[in-house]
Amino acid sequence: METSGFSDTQLQVREAIAKICSNFPDDYWAQHDESGEYPHELHKALSKDGWIGIALPEDLGGSGLGISEATLMLHTISESGAGMAGAQSIHANVYATQPVAKFATPSQRQRMLGKIIDGTWRVCFGVTEPNTGLETLKLKTQATPSGDTYKISGQKIWISSAQVATKMILLARTTPLEEVCKPSEGLSLFFIDFDPKQPGLELRKIKKMGGRAVDANEVFFDNYVIPKDSLIGKEGEGFKIVLHGMNAERCLLAGEALGLGYAALHKATTYAKERVVFGRPIGMNQGIQHPLAEAYMHLEAAKLATYHAARLYDRSTTDGTITQSAIGVACNSAKYLAAEAAFTACERSVLTLGGMGYAQEYHVERYLRECFVPRIAPVSREMIMNYVGEKVLGLPRSY
Ligand SMILES: Cc1cc2nc3c(=O)[nH]c(=O)nc-3n(C[C@H](O)[C@H](O)[C@H](O)COP(=O)(O)OP(=O)(O)OC[C@H]3O[C@@H](n4cnc5c(N)ncnc54)[C@H](O)[C@@H]3O)c2cc1C
């Protein structure tokens, strides 16, 4: 990847993360993908050196850097060959904590974030539900007040790292949909103990296509009791609050996709220089060379969109002229473009390696399996196009 234009701090982040990741070569990720074993060692190495708190405040033990640096960190992890699995094993701790840092009370921030930064706790992010999918505002998981507690009932799906997390950042309804004026009202954000040994909480692992080192789960709540002060911000304002984490998440996912795309391209160009057929390296053929050059340019363009979005997100804390809508459009567009560029690079990489592209030992088939994730999650390609069509182009709402 071309690194001109990144700040000195960002380049230092990239160098330090690449050094840590060099202890986790491609074979480590291939083995963990095969066995489904969680990459605990990466989380441990990153938390030991304080990286989990890269974008969290210094008074809590974080580094006080921005989502730009966090995006470059996840990008570098993914690019090391760790791919989406490596990035997903830590990313919720980085993005889902953003709304907590911004909207929690000072004592909640102290209690909730310090142990995530030092690696004692891990969080998972609980938004998606089986019966509502991308229609987040219709989600049905209910948090019902009961004395100085809430009782949670409902179901979540696709919750990453739930098998290893001890906390969940949860979006649930506190006012039924039928009783609110707008569907975005009546949702609340909670930071909860996540303990399947307690009554009312069950998990079921989902078998999946790629990134198998990181578990994905169905989560069932049945009158699961949490204390009242698990609530972050005001009751009923959870959607507005969680958007802060969701825009950060889109930047991070864009960075992760870029990393995967650059990793794939590196494998492809290395192979294309070495593999000789018909008396010359296959990379001498324009049929091989041009698609790789095109994939590179798509990655570089998506890189500009990604770090532009992250910069807007970071600058909005001090620059009141940057609107939430501008940030939303930039973060969604970046995630879309990076995911598509990664897909192109991964696909071209498999095709460049020919038969060996299909062999596990060359790793690009693993990258290709993983590169579907940023196209689907946390929001699909189609929903981003719906959003841009309506909110930017002013076309009639299509959904
Ligand atoms: C590996 C992985 C990890 C994940 N981790 C988490 C996590 O940790 N926490 C969490 O909360 N969620 C997580 N998710 C869930 C993810 O965010 C959702 O899968 C994603 O938001 C898509 O929702 P859905 O699967 O319900 O799709 P659906 O809503 O069922 O949509 C299915 C398809 O229909 C299309 N579609 C639907 N409506 C329209 C429309 N009006 N116009 C055009 N197209 C439409 C969609 O674009 C999509 O292609 C994860 C998912 C995956 C695959």
TrEMBL record:
InterPro entries found in the cross-reference section: Acyl-CoA_Oxase/DH_mid-dom (IPR006091), Acyl-CoA_Oxase/DH_mid-dom_sf (IPR046373), AcylCo_DH-like_C (IPR036250), AcylCo_DH/oxidase_C (IPR009075), AcylCoA_DH/ox_N (IPR013786), AcylCoA_DH/ox_N_sf (IPR037069), AcylCoA_DH/oxidase_NM_dom_sf (IPR009100)
Domain named Acyl-CoA dehydrogenase/oxidase C-terminal: residues: 236-392
Keywords assigned by UniProt, alphabetized: FAD, Flavoprotein, Oxidoreductase
SUPFAM superfamilies per the UniProt record, alphabetical: Acyl-CoA dehydrogenase C-terminal domain-like, Acyl-CoA dehydrogenase NM domain-like
Positions of the Acyl-CoA oxidase/dehydrogenase middle domain: 124-223
Family: Belongs to the acyl-CoA dehydrogenase family.
Designated name of the protein: Acyl-CoA dehydrogenase NM
Source species: Glarea lozoyensis (strain ATCC 20868 / MF5171)
